[in-house]
Amino acid sequence: MEENHSESEKGIWKLSVDGSSCITGSGAGLVLTSPDGWTLEYALRFKFKATNNEEEWEALIAGLTIAKHLEVRKIEASSDSQLVVGLTNGEYCHAPVLLRQH
């Protein structure tokens, strides 16, 4: 992995989340990457029916919780859910946070 020194110097962590559902259940995955390039990968399985947006929210919450426990100070999160990104960025409300749709 090629390291971007400007991002590493800024100490920005990356969080990428994605949800998935099928007949047998639902879940989500998340990847948390440090500024130095090491990654933590998690797979979440839910014991409840969830929509794709709910799965994305659950993954985002789990990722941010892990980051908090790691005492992460700067994080940039991404999701393919337009609703999750829009709500988090304040496009649909007034609580802006940096989150990009991928």
UniProtKB/TrEMBL annotation:
InterPro entries, per database record: RNaseH-like_sf, RNaseH_domain, RNaseH_sf
GO MF annotations in UniProt: nucleic acid binding; RNA-DNA hybrid ribonuclease activity
Coiled coil: none
Domain RNase H type-1 as annotated: residue spans: 23-92
Pfam families xrefs: RVT_3
Protein name: RVT_3 domain-containing protein
